[in-house]
């Protein structure tokens, strides 16, 4: 079953590579519960098939980095980039793309949360394993308010400009 507008997102664990240790977060990968992260917040989530891949690196992530201030001005508390990669890869990609303070780079390394959403993409035939479909969604206190799932191989509805118009 695929998640739809009006549904509450399933709980799950996402990991984030923390660059600077604090009292609450250690340096390196830290696990976070989705239910805790979404509570009382308005979040723009976008997912990509893979870190460092062409469309994701040239268009998808940069669009959200460039529009982060505009999205936050519209009441978005956080912007998440989710990918079926590990936290080390997501951290390295975030450093390269200068996402710090703009976009949280959240890893779903085993695609467990992605599968719970019903948004997995089987790329085994291309040697890439199970990945995420390309999508964006607007969450308000964990409830899906907008959901934009791309057709296979497309990048038309999950971009930052579309999200900006929906926020």
TrEMBL record:
CDD domains: PRX5_like. GO terms for biological process: cell redox homeostasis; cellular response to oxidative stress; hydrogen peroxide catabolic process. It catalyses: a hydroperoxide + 2 glutathione = an alcohol + glutathione disulfide + H2O. GO terms for cellular component: cytoplasm. The active site is at 56 (cysteine sulfenic acid (-soh) intermediate). It is an enzyme of class 1 (oxidoreductase). Pfam families: Redoxin. Its EC number is 1.11.1.27. One of its GO terms (molecular function) is thioredoxin peroxidase activity. Keywords: Antioxidant, Oxidoreductase, Peroxidase, Redox-active center. Residues 3-167 form the Thioredoxin domain. Thiol-specific peroxidase that catalyzes the reduction of hydrogen peroxide and organic hydroperoxides to water and alcohols, respectively. Plays a role in cell protection against oxidative stress by detoxifying peroxides. PANTHER family: PEROXIREDOXIN (PTHR10430), PEROXIREDOXIN-5, MITOCHONDRIAL (PTHR10430:SF16). Belongs to the peroxiredoxin family. Prx5 subfamily. This is Glutathione-dependent peroxiredoxin. It comes from Achromobacter aloeverae. The lineage of its organism: Bacteria, Pseudomonadati, Pseudomonadota, Betaproteobacteria, Burkholderiales.
